Protein backbone atom coordinates (compact mmCIF):
# COMPACT_ATOMS: atom_id res chain seq x y z
CA UNK A 1 0.00 0.00 0.00
CA UNK A 2 1.75 3.13 -1.22
CA UNK A 3 1.31 6.73 -2.36
CA UNK A 4 3.59 8.60 -4.77
CA UNK A 5 3.85 12.37 -4.29
CA UNK A 6 5.85 15.13 -5.98
CA UNK A 7 5.96 18.87 -5.23
CA UNK A 8 8.43 21.72 -5.89
CA UNK A 9 9.36 22.26 -2.22
CA UNK A 10 10.49 19.70 0.35
CA UNK A 11 8.35 21.20 3.10
CA UNK A 12 5.29 20.54 0.95
CA UNK A 13 6.30 16.91 0.43
CA UNK A 14 6.83 16.58 4.19
CA UNK A 15 3.32 17.94 4.78
CA UNK A 16 1.98 15.32 2.39
CA UNK A 17 3.93 12.62 4.20
CA UNK A 18 2.31 13.66 7.49
CA UNK A 19 -1.12 13.39 5.89
CA UNK A 20 -0.29 9.89 4.68
CA UNK A 21 0.91 8.92 8.16
CA UNK A 22 -2.47 10.09 9.48
CA UNK A 23 -4.27 7.67 7.17
CA UNK A 24 -4.74 9.90 4.15
CA UNK A 25 -4.86 8.84 0.51
CA UNK A 26 -3.41 10.52 -2.59
CA UNK A 27 -5.93 13.37 -2.39
CA UNK A 28 -5.03 14.09 1.22
CA UNK A 29 -1.31 14.02 0.46
CA UNK A 30 -1.69 16.37 -2.49
CA UNK A 31 -3.93 18.77 -0.58
CA UNK A 32 -1.56 18.94 2.39
CA UNK A 33 1.32 19.66 0.02
CA UNK A 34 -0.68 22.23 -1.95
CA UNK A 35 -1.70 24.12 1.20
CA UNK A 36 1.87 24.15 2.50
CA UNK A 37 3.16 25.51 -0.80
CA UNK A 38 1.15 28.69 -0.28
CA UNK A 39 3.31 29.36 2.78
CA UNK A 40 6.77 28.30 1.59
CA UNK A 41 6.44 29.17 -2.14
CA UNK A 42 4.47 32.45 -1.97
CA UNK A 43 6.05 33.83 -5.13
CA UNK A 44 4.41 31.02 -7.11
CA UNK A 45 1.15 30.35 -5.30
CA UNK A 46 -0.91 31.81 -2.46
CA UNK A 47 -4.45 31.54 -1.16
CA UNK A 48 -5.05 34.78 -3.02
CA UNK A 49 -4.71 32.81 -6.27
CA UNK A 50 -6.44 30.19 -8.42
CA UNK A 51 -6.35 26.44 -8.88
CA UNK A 52 -7.17 23.98 -11.66
CA UNK A 53 -6.97 20.24 -11.05
CA UNK A 54 -7.77 16.81 -12.42
CA UNK A 55 -9.04 14.17 -9.99
CA UNK A 56 -9.39 10.47 -10.83
CA UNK A 57 -11.22 8.02 -8.57
CA UNK A 58 -10.68 4.25 -8.20
CA UNK A 59 -13.48 3.62 -10.72
CA UNK A 60 -11.43 5.35 -13.40
CA UNK A 61 -13.66 8.42 -13.56
CA UNK A 62 -11.83 11.73 -14.02
CA UNK A 63 -13.17 15.20 -13.31
CA UNK A 64 -11.69 18.66 -13.79
CA UNK A 65 -11.88 21.13 -10.91
CA UNK A 66 -11.96 24.65 -12.33
CA UNK A 67 -11.31 27.00 -9.41
CA UNK A 68 -10.66 29.95 -11.70
CA UNK A 69 -11.63 33.29 -10.20
CA UNK A 70 -14.05 35.79 -11.70
CA UNK A 71 -13.78 39.49 -12.49
CA UNK A 72 -15.64 41.86 -10.14
CA UNK A 73 -19.25 42.60 -11.07
CA UNK A 74 -18.44 46.32 -11.24
CA UNK A 75 -15.28 46.01 -13.35
CA UNK A 76 -17.00 47.65 -16.33
CA UNK A 77 -17.14 50.89 -14.33
CA UNK A 78 -13.42 51.29 -14.98
CA UNK A 79 -12.56 48.98 -17.89
CA UNK A 80 -14.43 50.77 -20.68
CA UNK A 81 -11.60 53.22 -21.26
CA UNK A 82 -8.73 50.76 -21.05
CA UNK A 83 -6.44 50.05 -23.97
CA UNK A 84 -4.96 47.14 -22.02
CA UNK A 85 -5.90 45.43 -18.76
CA UNK A 86 -3.57 46.55 -15.94
CA UNK A 87 -0.82 44.05 -15.28
CA UNK A 88 -0.44 44.89 -11.59
CA UNK A 89 -2.54 46.33 -8.80
CA UNK A 90 -6.14 45.83 -7.73
CA UNK A 91 -7.68 45.87 -11.21
CA UNK A 92 -5.63 42.78 -12.12
CA UNK A 93 -7.08 40.79 -9.19
CA UNK A 94 -9.95 38.38 -9.79
CA UNK A 95 -11.75 36.58 -6.95
CA UNK A 96 -9.29 33.94 -5.64
CA UNK A 97 -10.58 30.43 -6.34
CA UNK A 98 -7.90 28.35 -4.64
CA UNK A 99 -9.48 27.64 -1.25
CA UNK A 100 -12.80 26.71 -2.86
CA UNK A 101 -10.87 24.41 -5.17
CA UNK A 102 -9.25 22.64 -2.23
CA UNK A 103 -12.69 22.19 -0.65
CA UNK A 104 -14.01 20.68 -3.87
CA UNK A 105 -11.13 18.21 -4.14
CA UNK A 106 -11.43 17.23 -0.49
CA UNK A 107 -15.10 16.44 -0.99
CA UNK A 108 -14.35 14.09 -3.88
CA UNK A 109 -12.73 11.38 -1.78
CA UNK A 110 -10.22 12.71 0.73
CA UNK A 111 -10.17 10.92 4.10
CA UNK A 112 -8.92 13.77 6.26
CA UNK A 113 -10.38 17.16 7.10
CA UNK A 114 -8.79 20.15 5.40
CA UNK A 115 -8.43 21.69 8.84
CA UNK A 116 -5.38 19.52 9.51
CA UNK A 117 -3.63 20.90 6.41
CA UNK A 118 -4.55 24.46 7.42
CA UNK A 119 -3.21 23.87 10.93
CA UNK A 120 0.14 22.69 9.56
CA UNK A 121 0.36 25.69 7.25
CA UNK A 122 -0.44 28.05 10.12
CA UNK A 123 2.30 26.53 12.27
CA UNK A 124 4.89 26.92 9.50
CA UNK A 125 3.83 30.49 8.72
CA UNK A 126 4.07 31.41 12.40
CA UNK A 127 7.32 29.61 13.22
CA UNK A 128 9.02 30.56 9.97
CA UNK A 129 10.93 28.69 7.31
CA UNK A 130 14.22 29.25 5.46
CA UNK A 131 14.18 31.00 2.11
CA UNK A 132 14.77 28.48 -0.68
CA UNK A 133 16.95 29.09 -3.72
CA UNK A 134 13.85 29.52 -5.88
CA UNK A 135 12.27 32.05 -3.53
CA UNK A 136 15.52 34.03 -3.38
CA UNK A 137 15.60 34.21 -7.20
CA UNK A 138 12.03 35.46 -7.19
CA UNK A 139 12.70 38.10 -4.52
CA UNK A 140 15.70 39.33 -6.49
CA UNK A 141 13.81 39.49 -9.78
CA UNK A 142 10.87 41.38 -8.23
CA UNK A 143 12.78 43.51 -5.71
CA UNK A 144 11.37 46.77 -7.06
CA UNK A 145 7.75 45.60 -6.79
CA UNK A 146 8.35 44.17 -3.31
CA UNK A 147 9.87 47.43 -2.11
CA UNK A 148 6.89 49.37 -3.51
CA UNK A 149 4.24 47.43 -1.56
CA UNK A 150 4.03 47.77 2.21
CA UNK A 151 2.75 44.22 2.65
CA UNK A 152 5.36 42.49 0.51
CA UNK A 153 8.11 44.70 1.89
CA UNK A 154 7.16 43.84 5.47
CA UNK A 155 7.61 40.11 4.83
CA UNK A 156 10.33 39.78 2.21
CA UNK A 157 12.42 42.82 3.15
CA UNK A 158 11.66 42.64 6.86
CA UNK A 159 15.29 43.20 7.86
CA UNK A 160 15.63 46.28 5.67
CA UNK A 161 17.08 44.23 2.81
CA UNK A 162 15.88 41.58 0.42
CA UNK A 163 15.86 38.19 2.12
CA UNK A 164 18.40 35.68 0.81
CA UNK A 165 18.59 31.90 0.73
CA UNK A 166 18.64 30.53 4.26
CA UNK A 167 17.08 33.60 5.90
CA UNK A 168 14.01 32.89 8.02
CA UNK A 169 10.61 34.04 6.73
CA UNK A 170 7.83 34.55 9.26
CA UNK A 171 4.25 35.34 8.24
CA UNK A 172 2.23 35.88 11.45
CA UNK A 173 -0.77 37.47 9.74
CA UNK A 174 -1.00 34.62 7.25
CA UNK A 175 -0.85 32.21 10.19
CA UNK A 176 -3.88 33.95 11.74
CA UNK A 177 -5.73 33.65 8.44
CA UNK A 178 -5.05 29.93 8.27
CA UNK A 179 -6.33 29.58 11.86
CA UNK A 180 -9.62 31.14 10.72
CA UNK A 181 -9.76 28.86 7.69
CA UNK A 182 -9.05 25.91 9.96
CA UNK A 183 -12.40 26.58 11.64
CA UNK A 184 -14.27 27.70 8.51
CA UNK A 185 -12.75 27.56 4.99
CA UNK A 186 -15.58 29.75 3.67
CA UNK A 187 -14.21 32.66 5.73
CA UNK A 188 -12.23 33.74 2.68
CA UNK A 189 -15.49 34.15 0.74
CA UNK A 190 -18.01 35.37 3.31
CA UNK A 191 -16.25 36.06 6.61
CA UNK A 192 -13.61 38.23 8.22
CA UNK A 193 -10.96 37.31 5.64
CA UNK A 194 -13.21 38.21 2.71
CA UNK A 195 -14.09 41.56 4.27
CA UNK A 196 -10.41 42.33 4.84
CA UNK A 197 -9.52 41.51 1.23
CA UNK A 198 -12.34 43.67 -0.12
CA UNK A 199 -11.15 46.57 2.07
CA UNK A 200 -7.58 46.12 0.86
CA UNK A 201 -8.55 45.92 -2.81
CA UNK A 202 -10.82 48.97 -2.62
CA UNK A 203 -8.06 50.89 -0.85
CA UNK A 204 -5.93 50.20 -3.92
CA UNK A 205 -8.69 51.40 -6.25
CA UNK A 206 -10.42 48.09 -6.97
CA UNK A 207 -14.13 47.70 -7.69
CA UNK A 208 -14.46 44.50 -5.65
CA UNK A 209 -17.46 43.97 -3.39
CA UNK A 210 -18.18 41.34 -0.76
CA UNK A 211 -20.86 39.91 -3.07
CA UNK A 212 -18.15 39.07 -5.64
CA UNK A 213 -16.60 36.76 -3.07
CA UNK A 214 -19.89 35.44 -1.69
CA UNK A 215 -21.16 34.51 -5.16
CA UNK A 216 -18.02 32.67 -6.24
CA UNK A 217 -18.46 29.00 -7.19
CA UNK A 218 -16.06 26.32 -8.44
CA UNK A 219 -16.97 24.50 -11.65
CA UNK A 220 -16.73 20.70 -11.78
CA UNK A 221 -16.44 19.55 -15.40
CA UNK A 222 -15.59 16.60 -17.60
CA UNK A 223 -12.04 16.66 -18.95
CA UNK A 224 -11.15 17.30 -22.57
CA UNK A 225 -9.71 14.11 -24.08
CA UNK A 226 -7.75 13.07 -27.15
CA UNK A 227 -6.06 9.87 -28.25
CA UNK A 228 -2.43 10.53 -29.13
CA UNK A 229 -0.15 7.70 -30.25
CA UNK A 230 -2.48 5.10 -28.75
CA UNK A 231 -2.75 6.78 -25.35
CA UNK A 232 -5.65 8.74 -23.89
CA UNK A 233 -4.68 12.27 -22.88
CA UNK A 234 -6.94 14.11 -20.42
CA UNK A 235 -6.85 17.84 -19.68
CA UNK A 236 -9.00 20.51 -18.07
CA UNK A 237 -11.43 22.33 -20.38
CA UNK A 238 -11.53 26.11 -20.90
CA UNK A 239 -10.88 28.56 -19.45
CA UNK A 240 -7.84 26.29 -18.89
CA UNK A 241 -5.39 26.06 -21.78
CA UNK A 242 -5.33 22.27 -21.25
CA UNK A 243 -6.93 21.42 -24.60
CA UNK A 244 -4.00 23.12 -26.30
CA UNK A 245 -1.60 20.62 -24.69
CA UNK A 246 -3.53 17.83 -26.36
CA UNK A 247 -3.62 19.78 -29.61
CA UNK A 248 0.15 20.26 -29.69
CA UNK A 249 0.83 16.58 -29.01
CA UNK A 250 -1.74 15.38 -31.56
CA UNK A 251 -0.59 17.82 -34.25
CA UNK A 252 3.04 16.77 -33.82
CA UNK A 253 2.15 13.08 -34.10
CA UNK A 254 -0.21 13.57 -37.03
CA UNK A 255 2.15 14.86 -39.69
CA UNK A 256 4.39 11.85 -40.15
CA UNK A 257 7.47 13.97 -39.47
CA UNK A 258 10.20 13.62 -36.86
CA UNK A 259 8.53 14.24 -33.51
CA UNK A 260 10.90 16.79 -31.95
CA UNK A 261 10.82 19.45 -34.71
CA UNK A 262 7.12 18.76 -35.28
CA UNK A 263 6.49 19.75 -31.67
CA UNK A 264 8.17 23.10 -32.35
CA UNK A 265 5.96 23.75 -35.37
CA UNK A 266 2.87 22.74 -33.41
CA UNK A 267 3.80 25.02 -30.53
CA UNK A 268 4.31 28.02 -32.81
CA UNK A 269 0.86 27.42 -34.24
CA UNK A 270 -0.57 27.00 -30.74
CA UNK A 271 0.60 30.47 -29.67
CA UNK A 272 -1.81 32.00 -32.17
CA UNK A 273 -4.57 29.49 -31.40
CA UNK A 274 -4.49 30.41 -27.73
CA UNK A 275 -4.79 34.11 -28.43
CA UNK A 276 -7.71 33.56 -30.80
CA UNK A 277 -9.79 30.96 -29.04
CA UNK A 278 -9.16 30.75 -25.28
CA UNK A 279 -11.55 32.35 -22.84
CA UNK A 280 -14.48 31.66 -20.54
CA UNK A 281 -17.08 29.44 -22.24
CA UNK A 282 -19.66 30.63 -19.72
CA UNK A 283 -19.36 34.15 -21.15
CA UNK A 284 -18.39 33.75 -24.81
CA UNK A 285 -18.06 31.25 -27.62
CA UNK A 286 -15.05 29.03 -26.91
CA UNK A 287 -14.40 26.05 -29.18
CA UNK A 288 -12.63 22.99 -27.80
CA UNK A 289 -12.28 21.76 -31.39
CA UNK A 290 -10.43 24.93 -32.37
CA UNK A 291 -8.00 24.44 -29.49
CA UNK A 292 -7.55 20.73 -30.17
CA UNK A 293 -6.94 21.28 -33.88
CA UNK A 294 -4.76 24.41 -33.46
CA UNK A 295 -7.05 26.58 -35.57
CA UNK A 296 -5.36 29.77 -36.81
CA UNK A 297 -7.73 30.66 -39.66
CA UNK A 298 -8.47 34.16 -38.33
CA UNK A 299 -4.98 35.05 -37.17
CA UNK A 300 -5.34 38.63 -38.42
CA UNK A 301 -7.37 39.30 -35.26
CA UNK A 302 -4.47 38.47 -32.96
CA UNK A 303 -2.65 41.12 -30.95
CA UNK A 304 0.32 40.65 -28.65
CA UNK A 305 -0.55 39.60 -25.12
CA UNK A 306 0.61 41.44 -22.04
CA UNK A 307 3.85 40.25 -20.45
CA UNK A 308 3.30 37.55 -17.83
CA UNK A 309 6.24 35.60 -16.49
CA UNK A 310 3.97 32.96 -15.02
CA UNK A 311 4.67 31.60 -11.57
CA UNK A 312 2.82 28.47 -10.66
CA UNK A 313 3.24 25.41 -8.47
CA UNK A 314 2.07 21.90 -9.26
CA UNK A 315 1.49 18.93 -6.96
CA UNK A 316 0.85 15.41 -8.21
CA UNK A 317 -0.07 12.29 -6.28
CA UNK A 318 -1.20 8.78 -7.09
CA UNK A 319 -1.90 5.74 -4.94
CA UNK A 320 -2.35 2.03 -5.44
CA UNK A 321 -6.00 2.27 -4.39
CA UNK A 322 -6.74 4.07 -7.65
CA UNK A 323 -6.83 7.71 -6.58
CA UNK A 324 -4.83 10.18 -8.67
CA UNK A 325 -4.69 13.96 -8.67
CA UNK A 326 -2.78 16.80 -10.27
CA UNK A 327 -3.24 20.23 -8.71
CA UNK A 328 -1.84 23.30 -10.45
CA UNK A 329 -2.16 26.53 -8.48
CA UNK A 330 -0.82 29.99 -9.05
CA UNK A 331 -0.56 33.72 -8.41
CA UNK A 332 0.10 34.08 -12.19
CA UNK A 333 3.04 36.51 -12.32
CA UNK A 334 5.79 36.25 -9.70
CA UNK A 335 4.25 37.64 -6.47
CA UNK A 336 1.01 38.15 -8.37
CA UNK A 337 -0.45 41.65 -8.48
CA UNK A 338 2.42 43.00 -6.39
CA UNK A 339 0.05 43.23 -3.42
CA UNK A 340 0.21 41.50 -0.04
CA UNK A 341 -2.65 42.48 2.26
CA UNK A 342 -0.98 43.32 5.60
CA UNK A 343 -4.12 42.41 7.56
CA UNK A 344 -4.46 38.84 6.26
CA UNK A 345 -0.93 38.18 5.00
CA UNK A 346 -2.37 37.04 1.65
CA UNK A 347 -0.50 37.61 -1.62
CA UNK A 348 -3.07 38.46 -4.31
CA UNK A 349 -2.75 37.13 -7.84
CA UNK A 350 -2.94 39.15 -11.06
CA UNK A 351 -4.81 36.57 -13.11
CA UNK A 352 -7.11 39.30 -14.41
CA UNK A 353 -4.23 40.72 -16.44
CA UNK A 354 -4.73 37.79 -18.84
CA UNK A 355 -7.97 39.39 -20.06
CA UNK A 356 -8.01 41.45 -23.23
CA UNK A 357 -10.17 44.47 -24.07
CA UNK A 358 -10.96 43.23 -27.60
CA UNK A 359 -14.71 42.45 -27.76
CA UNK A 360 -14.08 40.16 -30.73
CA UNK A 361 -12.00 37.76 -28.63
CA UNK A 362 -13.35 35.30 -26.02
CA UNK A 363 -10.73 36.62 -23.59
CA UNK A 364 -12.37 40.05 -23.37
CA UNK A 365 -12.85 41.32 -19.82
CA UNK A 366 -16.42 41.37 -18.52
CA UNK A 367 -18.18 41.35 -15.14
CA UNK A 368 -18.12 37.86 -13.65
CA UNK A 369 -15.96 36.42 -16.45
CA UNK A 370 -13.01 34.10 -15.89
CA UNK A 371 -9.77 35.00 -17.70
CA UNK A 372 -7.96 32.59 -20.03
CA UNK A 373 -5.97 30.31 -17.79
CA UNK A 374 -2.41 29.00 -18.22
CA UNK A 375 -2.89 26.27 -15.60
CA UNK A 376 -2.89 22.93 -17.42
CA UNK A 377 -3.01 19.73 -15.33
CA UNK A 378 -2.60 16.58 -17.41
CA UNK A 379 -3.19 12.83 -17.20
CA UNK A 380 -2.14 10.21 -19.75
CA UNK A 381 -3.77 6.77 -19.62
CA UNK A 382 -2.34 3.97 -21.73
CA UNK A 383 -4.47 1.25 -20.14
CA UNK A 384 -1.79 -0.45 -18.09
CA UNK A 385 -0.14 2.82 -17.03
CA UNK A 386 -1.34 6.18 -15.74
CA UNK A 387 0.91 9.27 -15.77
CA UNK A 388 -0.14 12.33 -13.78
CA UNK A 389 1.57 15.64 -14.59
CA UNK A 390 1.56 19.28 -13.57
CA UNK A 391 3.81 22.15 -14.51
CA UNK A 392 4.97 25.64 -13.68
CA UNK A 393 5.79 27.50 -16.85
CA UNK A 394 3.28 30.24 -17.59
CA UNK A 395 1.96 30.25 -21.14
CA UNK A 396 4.57 27.66 -22.13
CA UNK A 397 2.96 24.87 -20.08
CA UNK A 398 1.38 23.10 -23.10
CA UNK A 399 4.65 22.75 -25.02
CA UNK A 400 6.68 21.93 -21.93
CA UNK A 401 4.36 19.01 -21.15
CA UNK A 402 4.00 17.95 -24.78
CA UNK A 403 7.75 17.79 -25.41
CA UNK A 404 8.30 15.75 -22.24
CA UNK A 405 5.47 13.27 -22.58
CA UNK A 406 4.68 12.83 -26.30
CA UNK A 407 7.44 10.28 -26.88
CA UNK A 408 6.39 6.88 -25.48
CA UNK A 409 9.96 5.65 -25.58
CA UNK A 410 11.17 8.53 -23.41
CA UNK A 411 8.41 8.05 -20.85
CA UNK A 412 9.23 4.35 -20.49
CA UNK A 413 12.33 5.11 -18.43
CA UNK A 414 12.65 6.62 -14.94
CA UNK A 415 10.66 9.81 -14.55
CA UNK A 416 13.57 11.56 -12.84
CA UNK A 417 15.73 11.00 -15.93
CA UNK A 418 13.01 12.49 -18.11
CA UNK A 419 12.92 15.67 -16.03
CA UNK A 420 16.68 16.18 -16.28
CA UNK A 421 16.57 16.41 -20.07
CA UNK A 422 17.25 19.87 -21.54
CA UNK A 423 14.14 21.74 -22.69
CA UNK A 424 13.02 24.52 -24.93
CA UNK A 425 10.13 26.96 -24.71
CA UNK A 426 8.47 29.31 -27.17
CA UNK A 427 7.12 32.74 -26.33
CA UNK A 428 7.51 36.46 -26.78
CA UNK A 429 6.60 39.04 -24.15
CA UNK A 430 5.82 36.26 -21.67
CA UNK A 431 9.50 35.27 -21.79
CA UNK A 432 10.80 38.83 -22.00
CA UNK A 433 11.32 38.98 -25.78
CA UNK A 434 9.92 41.47 -28.29
CA UNK A 435 9.21 38.82 -30.92
CA UNK A 436 8.32 35.15 -30.93
CA UNK A 437 11.44 33.32 -29.75
CA UNK A 438 12.54 29.76 -29.10
CA UNK A 439 14.62 29.73 -25.91
CA UNK A 440 16.58 26.58 -25.19
CA UNK A 441 18.70 25.08 -22.45
CA UNK A 442 22.19 23.74 -23.25
CA UNK A 443 21.98 20.33 -24.88
CA UNK A 444 18.70 20.76 -26.76
CA UNK A 445 19.02 18.81 -30.06
CA UNK A 446 20.12 20.75 -33.13
CA UNK A 447 16.97 19.60 -34.97
CA UNK A 448 14.97 21.84 -32.62
CA UNK A 449 17.14 24.88 -33.35
CA UNK A 450 17.02 24.15 -37.08
CA UNK A 451 13.22 24.02 -37.02
CA UNK A 452 13.10 27.42 -35.33
CA UNK A 453 15.29 28.82 -38.09
CA UNK A 454 13.07 27.22 -40.75
CA UNK A 455 10.04 28.87 -39.18
CA UNK A 456 11.90 32.22 -38.96
CA UNK A 457 11.63 32.20 -35.18
CA UNK A 458 14.28 34.04 -33.16
CA UNK A 459 16.48 31.86 -30.96
CA UNK A 460 17.85 32.44 -27.46
CA UNK A 461 20.22 30.28 -25.42
CA UNK A 462 19.66 29.90 -21.69
CA UNK A 463 22.98 29.72 -19.85
CA UNK A 464 21.87 26.57 -18.03
CA UNK A 465 18.75 24.90 -16.63
CA UNK A 466 16.15 27.65 -16.43
CA UNK A 467 13.05 28.33 -14.35
CA UNK A 468 11.47 29.52 -17.60
CA UNK A 469 11.70 25.95 -18.93
CA UNK A 470 9.23 24.89 -16.25
CA UNK A 471 9.05 23.06 -12.95
CA UNK A 472 7.36 19.77 -13.82
CA UNK A 473 5.99 17.28 -11.30
CA UNK A 474 5.26 13.70 -12.41
CA UNK A 475 3.76 10.56 -10.88
CA UNK A 476 3.06 7.20 -12.47
CA UNK A 477 1.17 4.01 -11.64
CA UNK A 478 2.05 0.92 -13.67
CA UNK A 479 -0.97 -1.20 -12.96
CA UNK A 480 0.27 -4.55 -14.29
CA UNK A 481 3.63 -4.27 -12.58
CA UNK A 482 1.96 -2.84 -9.49
CA UNK A 483 4.55 -0.11 -8.93
CA UNK A 484 4.20 3.62 -8.49
CA UNK A 485 6.76 6.38 -8.92
CA UNK A 486 7.11 10.14 -8.48
CA UNK A 487 9.66 12.70 -9.62
CA UNK A 488 10.13 16.43 -9.10
CA UNK A 489 11.86 18.85 -11.45
CA UNK A 490 15.50 19.54 -10.49
CA UNK A 491 14.92 23.18 -11.52
CA UNK A 492 12.77 23.63 -8.39
CA UNK A 493 13.37 22.98 -4.68
CA UNK A 494 11.33 19.83 -4.11
CA UNK A 495 11.43 16.12 -4.67
CA UNK A 496 9.29 13.12 -5.48
CA UNK A 497 8.86 10.19 -3.13
CA UNK A 498 6.82 7.07 -2.51
CA UNK A 499 5.40 6.55 0.97
CA UNK A 500 3.75 3.56 2.61
CA UNK A 501 0.18 4.34 3.56
CA UNK A 502 -1.90 3.02 6.40
CA UNK A 503 -4.74 0.62 5.55
CA UNK A 504 -8.13 2.27 5.41
CA UNK A 505 -10.74 0.96 7.81
CA UNK A 506 -11.98 -2.36 6.48
CA UNK A 507 -8.90 -3.00 4.33
CA UNK A 508 -6.63 -5.95 5.08
CA UNK A 509 -3.40 -4.83 6.71
Cα end-to-end separation: 9 Å
Radius of gyration: 21 Å
Overall shape: it is globular
| H/I helix tally | 19
Q: How do the strands of the widest beta sheet line up side by side?
A: 6-3-2-10-9-1-20
User: Segments where pLDDT lies below 50 for 5+ residues?
Assistant: none
The count of strands amounts to: 20
Number of domains: 2
Hey, roughly how much beta strand do the residues contain? 15-25%
Structural class: alpha+beta
Mean pLDDT, nearest integer?
A: 93
The largest sheet is:
7 strands, antiparallel
Helix content: 25-40%
Can you give a write-up of this model?
The chain is of the alpha+beta class and 509 residues long. The protein folds into 2 domains: 8-220 and 329-354, no CATH class; 222-308 and 376-500, Glutamine Phosphoribosylpyrophosphate, subunit 1, domain 1. Helix content is 34%, strand content 21%. The longest helix is centred in the middle third of the chain and has 19 residues, at 259-277. The chain is globular. The model has no long low-confidence stretch (mean pLDDT 93). InterPro entries: GGT-like_enzyme (IPR052896), GGT_ssub_C (IPR043137), Ntn_hydrolases_N (IPR029055).
Briefly summarize what is shown.
With 509 residues, this protein is an alpha+beta fold. The protein has 19 helices and 20 strands. The chain has two domains: 8-220 and 329-354, no CATH class; 222-308 and 376-500, Glutamine Phosphoribosylpyrophosphate, subunit 1, domain 1 (4-Layer Sandwich).
Compile the SSE list and pairings.
Layout (H helix, E strand, L loop, with lengths): L1 E6 L2 H12 L4 H15 L9 E7 L5 E6 L8 H4 L18 H9 L7 H14 L1 E2 L2 H9 L1 H6 L1 H7 L11 E2 L2 H12 L3 H4 L1 H12 L6 H5 L4 E3 L2 E5 L2 E5 L6 H13 L4 H19 L10 H5 L17 E10 L4 E10 L5 E3 L4 E3 L29 E4 L3 E8 L4 H9 L2 H4 L3 H6 L3 E4 L9 E4 L5 H9 L3 E4 L9 E8 L4 E6 L6 E6 L9
Parallel strand pairs: 16-17
Antiparallel strand pairs: 1-9, 1-20, 2-3, 2-10, 3-6, 4-5, 7-8, 8-13, 9-10, 11-12, 13-14, 14-18, 15-16, 18-19
Helix pairs in contact: 1-2, 2-5, 5-9, 13-14, 13-16, 14-16, 14-19
